[in-house]
Write a structure and sequence with these properties.
single chain; 169 residues; mainly beta; OB fold (Dihydrolipoamide Acetyltransferase, E2P); eight-stranded mixed sheet; 10 strands
Length: 169
């Protein structure tokens, strides 16, 4: 069995939208740009050109991890985030009856990269993980990468020993 992980650092291209489920769970949905080539300025038109597309990101509330709620409270269009997750093929039928498939990034880890207080209440550096309880997950840098909110949805504490300007990889 093959396992894949996609890591993205990007700015949100639209405000997150929340969809509630009947079982009490929910999902926050937003989009981020994926660039395949470095943008270059076209000397004739003066426009920036490059190969890119917008990928949709889904962040779920799972068990005691209310990441979708935190995303809704803390992020908005233009917020910069680090996202770790897996690709899922989202198949649907469009308005014209054509079956369409589009990849969706299902986030397991999100880290806010904006300076403290710029977006949301606590801003920069809060690392959130749905995969494991706080302190039990390693992100490969020697720091623990878990995050567990308290009952109010506010950050309980920031795990890991790095400073605010530390890059997550």
């Amino acid at each position: 069995m093959a396992y894949h992980k996609l890591c993205v650092i990007a700015k949100l291209v639209r405000d997150p939208e929340f969809k509630a489920f009947d079982n009490g769970g929910g999902v926050a949905k937003f989009g981020v740009p994926i660039n395949f080539t470095r943008p270059k300025k076209n000397p004739q038109t003066g426009e920036w050109e490059g190969d890119s597309f917008i990928i949709n990101v889904d962040v779920f509330n799972r068990d005691n991890y209310k990441l979708a709620d935190i995303v809704m409270q803390s992020l908005k269009k233009g917020s910069q985030v680090y996202i770790e997750g897996r690709l899922k093929n989202n198949e649907y039928t469009d308005r014209n009856g054509v079956k369409t498939a589009r990849p969706v990034l299902v986030a397991d880890v999100i880290e806010f990269l904006d300076p403290r207080g710029e977006f949301g209440q606590d801003g920069g550096g809060a690392r959130m993980s749905q995969a494991a309880p706080a302190g039990s997950r390693s992100n490969g840098s020697g720091r623990s990468g878990g995050y567990q909110p308290d009952d109010t949805g506010a950050p309980a504490s920031r795990s890991g020993g790095g400073g605010e300007d530390e890059i997550p990889f």
